[in-house]
User: Which sequence fits this backbone?
């Protein structure tokens, strides 16, 4: 296997996630697609770490921190979704317009 | 040879389940497809000889994040509405296809400085040395702990009943 295989796989997953994040109505599905994009970035980081610096593991350390931030992000995101659902009875992202002018 | 078979099986499984997340009409099923996708990512990490990260992926993504997402789907009655798209479906599809083409073109036409060294057999002790040594990233680990603490307090504050 070469580095390009893993990079193309990560690009495909990233674009599927981006399509979902841009085109879905439900806020939970948008968060799920953001998780897909973060996973694609992790695959690219680990592939670079395996093929370019195999003994230094730079990319793996980077992806540990990215997993940490992803866990924090999804926790806060779901807390905000639950809070919005309590108040408005919907989490349709095209109907939530609290911060629009 | 075995590595190649594993890569192609995992890559096909991952792409199929990522498409299922986006395309399935039932939100609960797409959350389950997301779990399959996370497991396939852990398998891809194993083929990249990143054993510690594969374990972390299973523990954090499959164990924690997927459960959180499924719980919040159940708490918000989203299953009844289904996995709807908004008005931007076609433009976002075009944007993603163009971005995919540009990215793959750039990736295949770059001369990556690939190293010929063999990867480490086990990565855990090396990772621990990088993360916790005196001249390593110990400060970043502490900042990460602070971030998680702030996240817990923030989530409790946001969802608390007044």
Assistant:
């Amino acid at each position: 296997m070469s580095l390009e295989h893993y990079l193309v796989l990560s690009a495909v997953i990233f674009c599927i996630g981006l399509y979902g994040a841009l085109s879905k109505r439900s806020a939970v599905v948008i968060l799920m697609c953001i998780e897909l994009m973060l996973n694609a970035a992790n695959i690219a980081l680990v592939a670079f770490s395996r093929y370019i610096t195999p003994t230094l593991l730079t990319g793996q350390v980077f992806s540990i921190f990215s997993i940490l931030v992803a866990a924090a992000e999804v926790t806060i995101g779901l807390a905000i979704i639950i809070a919005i659902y309590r108040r408005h009875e919907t989490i349709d992202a095209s109907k939530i317009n609290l911060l629009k002018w | 040879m075995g590595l190649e078979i594993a890569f192609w099986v995992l890559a096909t499984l991952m792409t199929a389940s990522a498409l299922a997340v986006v395309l399935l009409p039932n939100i609960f099923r797409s959350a389950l497809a997301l779990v399959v996708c996370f497991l396939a990512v852990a398998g891809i990490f194993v083929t990249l000889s990143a054993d510690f990260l594969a374990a972390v992926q299973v523990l954090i993504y499959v164990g924690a994040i997927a459960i959180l997402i499924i719980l919040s789907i159940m708490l918000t009655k989203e299953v009844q509405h289904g996995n709807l798209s908004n008005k931007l479906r076609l433009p976002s599809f075009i944007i993603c296809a163009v971005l995919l083409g540009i990215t793959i073109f750039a990736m295949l036409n770059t001369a990556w400085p690939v190293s010929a060294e063999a990867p480490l057999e086990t990565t855990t002790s090396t990772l621990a040395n990088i993360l916790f040594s005196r001249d390593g990233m110990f400060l970043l680990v502490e900042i990460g702990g602070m971030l998680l603490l702030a996240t817990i307090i923030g989530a409790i504050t946001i969802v608390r009943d007044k």
Notes: The mean pLDDT of chain B is 90. Helices of chain B lie at 2-23, 27-47, 51-75, 89-108, 124-132, 138-159.
